[in-house]
Amino acid sequence: MACCKKELSAEEVIALDKKYVWHHLTQHKVFENSDPMIIDHGKGMHVYDIKGKEYLDAVSGGVWTVNVGYGREEIVDAVAEQMKKLCYFANSFGSTPTAIFAEKLISKMPGMSRVYISNSGSEANEKAFKIVRQISILKHGGKKNKIIYRDRDYHGTTITTLSACGQEERREQYGPFTPGFVSFPAANCYRNPYGLDPSDPKLGELFANELEKVILAEGPDTVGGVIVEPITAGGGVLVPPKDYLTKVSAICKKYDVLLIIDEVVCGLGRTGKWFGYQHFDVQPDIVTMAKGVASGYAAISCTVTTEKVFQDFIAEPSDRESYFRDISTFGGCTSGPAAAIANLEIIERENLLENTAKVGEYFMGKLNELKDKYSVIGDVRGKGLFCGMELVKDRTTKEPVDESVCGAIVANCMKQGVIIGKTSRSFKKFNNTLCFSPALIATTKDIDQIVAALDKAFAEVCK
């Protein structure tokens, strides 16, 4: 029997949301005197709230995800056709879109070989950690089980990925954490502890040496993996020196440590190359990715390994302990790889890597013009359409502004119809970076609108 759907008014939807929905990262006390912002639809670079107001989205869905923009009918059609044919089957079996997608993805990643599919960035990194831990049993008698992570990096929201989180506020109240995770210092050129200019060529080696110190202190025979973001994302958009990851990789090889690159944010074109690590002449052992894999049109994440890592799990079928004993229920959804195939084809067909590099360079130039105009802007950094702007009270001391200043800038831009991001509730002191990640389809006209909104916001907030 067919049911008749009633079109709800904006007020009715808002009432339902306030009564039943538990929002991410939100103190719901604010909704006692205000309404949640509900996004209703989107097209291209723009989204529209349920009351009809239009916004230019400069953060690709709020969390750097919708890389190819909204309303891509070819992705929707690809998903619909696949779901009519086969919506799901566990990935212990195979499916056509999974096989096709895996081949297309590996073609963008020289030196990589195998793709393990799950459904979120946190889960992709959990798989990487489990691979390291199981290899420590299979090859090293269980000894090389520690995983080194970097301060200011973020790798997910589960208890174990939070165990590898370099952002203290995100970890608060969720311990005790999984043992065997150890931190090393961030590659923060702007705030380097050596008293060097941020462009000093010695920084790459100095930062990498901090990793070696930790490995030696822990004991190389106990360390199995190192995980880093190629460019730190939510920790402040920190771009490392060009030779940094090359030196990190060499240290990992020296001590027989697997190098895991977390591309959950940087992957699939965000920086102007397919993957962020490809700017830095490095060959990872494991690469994780999620957000931009299908541009948010379906849930999918990947843990990609070299053939060498994969072969560590190959044994006779009678060996009940050597295969990777892991499963992701929704890694079997065929909508993910179907959407990802269409997403890759759009990036290729529309030359979005080239567009990202070109428009990203224009964006960085415009942000630096704002830096020349407003002393509150201490640093501008980024790669491609992935940019950060750190705000300070004083450029000489680099004392960070209070988080409320960034919040006021974001709110001002929102009133103007431009959505930007910021580091938020991640650190005790350094929630002072504005973040920008417009879709890879952005034009210089879009950038001009973002910059004009920022200009007005700085003029009004930082008088």
Report on this model:
- The protein has helices at residues 10-20, 60-64, 73-85, 96-106, 121-140, 159-162, 168-171, 203-218, 244-254, 307-311, 335-349, 352-373, 403-415, 444-461, and strands at residues 39-43, 46-49, 54-57, 114-118, 146-150, 181-184, 223-228, 258-262, 286-289, 301-305, 377-382, 387-391, 418-419, 421-422, 433-436.
- By secondary structure, the chain is an alpha/beta fold.
- The strands form three sheets. The chain has a seven-stranded mixed sheet, with helices on both faces. A four-stranded mixed sheet has the order 1-2-3-13. The protein has a four-stranded antiparallel sheet with strand order 11-12-15-14.
- α3 (73-85) runs antiparallel to α11 (335-349), α8 runs parallel beside α9 and α12 runs parallel beside α14 (444-461).
- The longest helix has 22 residues, at 352-373.
- The model has no long low-confidence stretch (mean pLDDT 96).
Instruction: Give average pLDDT, whole number.
Output: 96
Distance between the termini: 63 Å
**Biggest sheet, open or closed, and with what strands and sense?**
7 strands, mixed
Shape type: globular
Q: What is the number of helical segments per DSSP (H or I, 4+ residues)?
A: 14
Widest beta sheet: strand line-up:
4-10-9-8-7-5-6
Structural class: alpha/beta
Kindly state the percentage of residues in helix: 25-40%
Name the helix and strand elements from N-terminus to C-terminus, one letter apiece.
Answer: HEEEHHHEHEHHEHEHEEEHHHEEHEEEH
Uncertain ranges: none
User: What's the number of extended β-strand segments?
Assistant: 15
- Rg: 22 Å
Strand content: 5-15%
